[in-house]
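re the bet — no i am not wrong, look at it urself. input seq straight from the record:
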Amino acid sequence: MKSPGKRSGFRSTDTAREDPRVVRRILTHLGLAGAAVAARVVELLVATPSIEVVDLTGGAPELCPHFRWLVGAARRLGRRVIDRCNLTILLEPAMEDLSDFLAANRVEVVASLPCYGPENVDRQRGLGVFAKSIVALRRLNALGYGAERRLDLVYNPVGASLPPPQQVLENYLELSFPTGAAINRLNCLNFNGCGTACGM
């Protein structure tokens, strides 16, 4: 099973034809995915029991009209589902019940936050985004995320810089993060392309 490629909106991280035992995860980019793509993902899950994780991304995958259908189908098939969430989507007017939906379906959340402080976050994502993100984190915490439900935070530094060591950041986060916002794990990554890093 070769990767359908970027245009189709999803790809498998391994190829079943090489060794069906190594296909573990299907990454689904829902940014522009239509009903046919969502249905095809479910077909692949049915046909490939070795895929254990459905990892949903796309900026705000929750805005895809087929997001909830796909989550429900994957969970009914017994797959782990990860939502790569930008947090503020949980506060949008049409998304008031999204947190409850994620919790009810035991969806794991990997939340994106480019820094532990408001200045850098607001500079990168817009004024007030850090405060809204904390409100969203607390909403997830109230539903058991950060404890019995998985909630990881992704730290991606602004500009042409690498993140500090993960343990250093985790320790700093414990000291500086607002009280009442809990996560399971902090993931550090650097995702700056050459154009971003070079200020182009």
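see?? The CA atoms of residues 146 and 183 lie 4 Å apart. told u. also The chain is about 35% helix and 15% strand. so pay up
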